[in-house]
Amino acid sequence: MKESKETVTYLKLSQANIRKELTKYVKSIKSIALPTPQNDVLELIHSLKRQPLGTGRYKCVSLFEASNLIYSDLVILFGVQQLLNNPVVGNVRLPFTEYEVNLGVKGGNDLKAVSGSHCLVGEAFNVSKSLFQGKKSHMIKKVRRDLNADYRLIIFNADAVKNHKYYLEKSDLDILYLPVFVPKTLREIGGLFK
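-> structure tokens emitted (194 positions)
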């Protein structure tokens, strides 16, 4: 997908605005007009994979592409919300009270944070179990490129792994792993979006 200004969102998130930004994001998702079901299965599949939505946050891409972007965005947003509520990943306490996030971005880092002389870079993704190891390896290489970072964070959907606690325990200053439960978090904060 080629990035356009309408698909990229830069946010500074803190305790003061995370709830508002989550509400705004979910409202933008709910504004998506779903494709009309077709009588022909192949036409429907083509529509889902290729026809631009025309509405919502990612209106220039198909529902298939938009769903991948949306779930990656939710992993970022819910991960940052977790960090703001409890800044501990594994046994590492993070000193950050604000995170800069990039939603809908293919290049650059998904999130950054600075506190005094401490710097964090992070990547977030939503992936199937079968693709997790490859995606994780690619993201680790990406965050390790930033030699100035004191903390390197990988946020991912918890249902992509068999044992999410293993990754929390594996976290150290070199690489921090933060599993996020997207469906569970959506259910828990559902009242927020009504």
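The two ends are 31 Å apart (CA to CA).
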